[in-house]
Specification:
By secondary structure, the chain is an alpha+beta fold. It is built from two helices and eight strands. An eight-stranded mixed sheet has the order 1-2-3-8-7-4-6-5, with helices on both faces. A hairpin with a 4-residue loop joins β7 and β8. The N and C termini lie far apart (31 Å).
Length: 127
């Protein structure tokens, strides 16, 4: 079972994540994530509580090998074994459970604050 984040939806949450407001869903992406590194193992704990808002059980994470250094096929997350699928387009990470899928647009870790804010705004306003 995933935990809920400590901050309301529509505001930045720990882990440099910005969620789209619930009224804007469904949409291609549910939010934007700006990780601090390309190490998926280290960064996932910062975003996992955020996806608990809309996804109760996590079974698969789809990502691009051009965005992340991770190469293992599975990972234990909060006591559950989660399948990692590296066959996803760059710039997007998808969290899936039995009944829902949540996609986040990615901002590269080396992006400046100003560029990250501009990119996040553009991603969240896409129709």
């Amino acid at each position: 079972m995933l935990r809920r984040p400590p901050v309301p939806i529509g505001r930045p949450v720990p882990g440099r994540v910005l969620l789209r407001s619930p009224s804007a869903l469904p949409h291609h992406i549910a939010g934007v994530w700006w990780p601090r590194s390309r190490h998926l193992d280290h960064e996932l704990p910062t975003v996992i509580p955020t996806i608990g808002v809309r996804l109760r059980t996590l079974t698969r994470i789809s990502y691009s090998t051009s965005d992340w250094d991770r190469r293992e096929p599975r990972m234990e997350i909060m006591g559950d074994l989660v399948e990692l699928d590296p066959a996803h387009p760059s710039g997007l990470i998808v969290f899936a459970g039995p009944n829902a899928t949540i996609a986040f647009g990615l901002i590269a870790p080396n992006t400046t604050q100003q560029q990250a804010e501009h990119t996040a705004t553009a991603m969240l306003q896409e129709r």
